[in-house]
Design goal:
By secondary structure, the chain is α+β, with helices and mostly antiparallel strands. 32% of the residues lie in helices and 39% in strands. Strands 1, 2, 3, 4, 5, 6, 7 and 8 form an eight-stranded mixed sheet that branches. The protein is elongated and about 50 Å long. The termini are far apart. 25% of the residues are buried.
């Protein structure tokens, strides 16, 4: 039985990972467009208290196969060259990145269309939970 790829990164997604993924594609001459999404933790105000961080948890045995399915579906639906998905697990402070999706294709329309669809599918289908930690230390489950 094939083991699913692990799409999770412990803590926030480092800028170096984003830069490295983009850099890896610079030698590929058949790619004409890259589109990427960075999901960043906001300092929302809930009941008068600012969000300090989000603690992400996931049922990884179900989440990783779901990420793989979203990825496979995107390759079937759009003319893509590459697709990379990384999601945080654990604590991510406000201002830090918790989701990184990079889509590459020959033409920009495929990249743009696929990127929006992929991010929406992640939100709808992948079992990831968020616990916002407020300024007073109290949790707010999302």
């Amino acid at each position: 039985m094939k083991k699913d790829k692990d799409y999770f990164v412990e803590g926030s997604i480092p800028a170096e990972l984003v830069a490295d993924e983009i850099r890896k594609h610079s030698h590929k001459k058949n790619i004409g467009a890259h589109a990427f999404f960075l999901g960043q933790v906001r300092a929302d105000i809930i009941d008068g208290k600012e969000v300090q961080e989000i603690i992400y948890s996931a049922y990884t045995e179900m989440a990783n196969p779901e990420f793989s399915k979203i990825r496979e579906d995107a390759f079937e639906k759009y003319n893509l060259s590459c697709l990379h998905i990384y999601h945080s697990i654990g604590a991510v402070k406000t201002g830090e990145i918790s989701l990184f999706v990079l889509v590459s294709s020959k033409h920009r329309k495929d990249s743009f269309d696929a990127l929006e669809d992929i991010v929406e599918q992640i939100k709808l289908k992948v079992p990831i939970w968020k616990k916002e930690i407020l300024a007073d230390g109290n949790p707010n489950w999302v």
